[in-house]
């Protein structure tokens, strides 16, 4: 239908209370135009030719990209006809804040009026521009009706038939067809990154699961992701570790894992000797020189210590279902001299108080790249790693996931890279770098989360406790009688580990959050337990119907007659743009919010619309299945294992 034929909106659809949503980003599928006059002229001629046929999309289905991107394609056609001389205008599409006005709106009219006012335009204000945009919108099966509100906002009501058709197509073709389209092909996500010889503690939880979720969302969006574990496996601390190892084993044989014992305890003991014994400290410093010079004995001891740490980390990664490729500080060490030489040739590196530094405008202290003693540091390693990722790995987007306390370091080294010409000066151009900062994990006392003995909480112990508490809750509910021990274990793992992840990811990552088992394991409210149970209930509805859902996908028809069916269907269709927003802003909580609101929409639908035994059973079972499919994909992107019965 052509929008100009309609001005009546559908009745408003009631929706459950929601958390406030972040505003959605403008579409990334917008076209960039060359400043070349010939290209501009050719474009104008093409658009004027199209203007004589305003319904070029009448019989074409707009496909590809998110729902918002598809609407943007339609409005792009209209804008080129409405204001053919304004070639740099991208469609400003956003969801309607109030559903009584429509589903989406185009907000270009006011901005266009400020551009064309005083240029001899035919328009007398923003509302006539909005009217023209609506009139010139190509006919599409997506759109049911349009209307104008205020100073030219074009409100769009989507066709419920088209929504239903799109969902049914996803059920047949798979949810991968809903993946958003991002403007990058390869990205590095640098996350987790513990220090060798130290246990992973609760502070590593946020980097590990935030980084994993960002990597999963990018991978779903068809971006090749290089998952990098930039472990701290090089530096002066290895001198004291190796020297202490040799002191305990004077024969020179590298000790077994059991002989070394707990590596964290071993590290603390060596640090105590280093701080209290000047002779030991001197030997440790010489050991660093021997290690860096490639002495086989020292290299072997170093490799052994690293391997013990890796095995400890792997226990955590297995529990969390996280996969990384290790490229630690030692990997980039050979590239440091070359990277610094490139920066020196650009005139960026200067001598200052015996050190070599890069001065950054607006910062009180410089970025030190070579210490007074000639040694390298984090900045020199990070610059070498950035050069490698840009030039060897050909990454277009490099994402660093660390605590917010490192923000200034990243700002300074990103600025240095821009000054060197390694990165474009503009933040919205590729290749680009992003620092994903996150806040602290707090205890219920409001202080940094620690054990009663003031030790940092070991991550493996925390995860095991979450699983144990979940298993106890399941047994208390009588599941031990009905389930096998394997079912009990797997469900406790899925819910326990999922609860820990979701409690973190649902918060805006830049804020601190309070770690509370009682809150995260609650089966009511915005928790993983509630959402996993909601998914299990949907699966139960489908099972109890006795119908073959795969057969229904092939032979059944989805219809969204009831207002709550339509609300749920529209929410499902917005999945791609939510993933796009979460990726673009690097905010996993946007996806968590979407998932929770989806479960609320489903609850309202199920409360008001009988499924099994109703005349609309087939259609409503398909809507149940579509909801379960999208929920499972959300769980996957958040690194949470779904449960199918509870």
Quick overview:
This protein is of the alpha/beta class. The chain has helices at residues 37-51, 67-82, 109-116, 126-136, 160-173, 202-220, 237-248, 257-260, 263-276, 278-292, 296-320, 329-332, 336-345, 378-391, 407-419, 459-476, 479-482, 485-505, 517-520, 528-545, 549-555, 563-573, 575-585, 588-608, 617-637; strands at 93-95, 104-106, 143-149, 153-158, 186-190, 224-229, 325-326, 349-352, 355-358, 367-370, 397-403, 432-438, 441-442, 513-514. 43% of the residues are buried.
Category from helices, strands and their pairing: alpha/beta
Q: Largest sheet at a glance?
A: 5 strands, parallel
Give the N-terminus to C-terminus distance in angstroms.
46 Å
Q: Over all CA atoms, what is the radius of gyration?
A: 29 Å
What proportion of the residues form beta strands (DSSP E)?
Answer: 5-15%
Number of helices: 25
User: Major sheet: order of its strands?
Assistant: 7-6-5-11-12
Low-confidence stretches: 1-62
Shape: flat
The percent range for helix content is: 40-55%
Residue-averaged pLDDT, rounded? 87
The count of strands amounts to: 14
Enzyme class: ligase
GO molecular function: arginine-tRNA ligase activity; ATP binding
Keywords: Acetylation, Aminoacyl-tRNA synthetase, ATP-binding, Ligase, Nucleotide-binding, Protein biosynthesis
InterPro entries: aa-tRNA-synth_I_CS (IPR001412), Arg-tRNA-ligase (IPR001278), Arg-tRNA-synth_N (IPR005148), Arg-tRNA-synth_N_sf (IPR036695), ArgRS_core (IPR035684), DALR_anticod-bd (IPR008909), Rossmann-like_a/b/a_fold (IPR014729), tRNAsynth_Ia_anticodon-bd (IPR009080)
């Amino acid at each position: 239908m052509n929008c100009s034929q309609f001005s009546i909106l559908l009745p408003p659809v009631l929706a459950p209370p929601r958390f406030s949503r972040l505003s959605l980003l403008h579409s990334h599928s917008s076209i960039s135009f060359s400043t070349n006059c010939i290209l501009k002229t050719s474009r104008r001629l093409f658009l004027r030719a199209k203007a004589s046929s305003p319904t070029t999309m009448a019989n074409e289905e707009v496909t590809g990209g998110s729902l918002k991107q598809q609407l943007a394609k339609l409005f792009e056609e209209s804008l080129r006809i409405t204001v053919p001389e304004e070639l740099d205008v991208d469609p400003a599409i956003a969801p309607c804040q109030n559903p009584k006005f429509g589903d989406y709106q185009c907000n270009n009219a006011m901005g266009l009026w400020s551009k064309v006012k005083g240029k001899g335009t035919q328009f007398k204000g923003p509302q006539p521009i909005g009217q023209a945009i609506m009139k010139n919108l190509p006919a599409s099966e997506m759109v049911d009706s349009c209307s104008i509100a205020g100073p030219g906002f074009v409100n769009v009501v989507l066709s419920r038939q088209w929504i239903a058709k799109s969902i049914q197509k996803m059920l047949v073709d798979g949810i991968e067809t809903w993946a958003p389209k991002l403007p990058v092909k390869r990205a590095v996500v640098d996350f987790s990154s513990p220090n060798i010889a130290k246990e992973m503690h609760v502070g590593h939880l946020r980097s590990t699961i935030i980084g994993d979720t960002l990597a999963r969302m990018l991978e779903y969006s068809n971006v090749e992701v290089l998952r990098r574990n930039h472990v701290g496996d090089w530096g002066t601390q290895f001198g004291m570790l190796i020297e202490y190892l040799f002191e305990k084993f004077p024969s020179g044989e590298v000790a077994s894992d059991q002989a070394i014992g707990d590596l964290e305890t071993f590290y603390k003991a060596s640090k105590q000797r280093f701080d209290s014994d000047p002779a030991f400290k001197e030997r440790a410093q010489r050991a660093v020189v021997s290690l860096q010079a490639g002495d086989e004995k020292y290299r072997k001891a170093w490799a052994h210590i690293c391997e013990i740490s890796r095995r400890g980390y792997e226990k955590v990664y297995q529990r969390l279902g996280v996969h990384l490729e290790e490229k630690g500080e030692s990997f980039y060490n050979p590239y440091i001299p070359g990277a610094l030489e490139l920066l020196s040739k650009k005139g960026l590196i200067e001598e200052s108080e015996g050190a070599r530094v890069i001065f950054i405008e607006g910062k009180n202290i410089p970025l030190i790249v070579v210490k007074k003693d000639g040694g390298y540091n984090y900045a020199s390693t990070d610059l070498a790693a950035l050069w490698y990722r840009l030039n060897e790995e050909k990454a277009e987007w490099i994402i660093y996931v660390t605590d917010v306390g490192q923000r200034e370091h990243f700002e300074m080294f990103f600025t240095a890279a821009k000054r060197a010409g390694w990165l474009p000066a503009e933040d919205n151009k590729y290749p680009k770098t992003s620092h994903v900062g996150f806040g602290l994990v707090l205890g219920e006392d409001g202080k940094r989360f620690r054990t009663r003995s003031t030790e940092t909480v070991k991550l493996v112990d925390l995860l095991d406790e979450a699983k144990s508490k979940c298993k106890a809750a399941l047994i208390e509910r009588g599941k031990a009688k009905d389930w096998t021990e394997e079912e009990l274990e797997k469900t406790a793992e899925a819910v326990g580990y999922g609860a820990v992840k979701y409690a973190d990811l649902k918060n805006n990552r830049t804020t601190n959050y309070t770690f509370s088992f009682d809150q995260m394991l609650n089966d009511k409210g915005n928790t993983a337990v509630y959402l996993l149970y909601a998914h299990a209930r949907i699966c139960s509805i489908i099972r109890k119907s006795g119908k073959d859902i795969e057969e229904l996908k092939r032979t059944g028809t989805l219809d969204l007659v009831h207002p709550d069916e339509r609300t749920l269907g529209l929410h499902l269709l917005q999945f791609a743009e939510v993933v796009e927003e979460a990726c673009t802003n690097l905010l996993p909580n946007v996806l968590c919010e979407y998932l929770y609101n989806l479960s609320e929409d489903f609850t309202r639908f199920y409360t008001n619309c009988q499924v099994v035994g109703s005349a609309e059973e087939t259609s409503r079972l398909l809507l149940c299945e579509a909801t379960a499919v999208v929920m499972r994909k959300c769980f996957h992107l958040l690194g949470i294992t779904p449960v199918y019965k509870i």
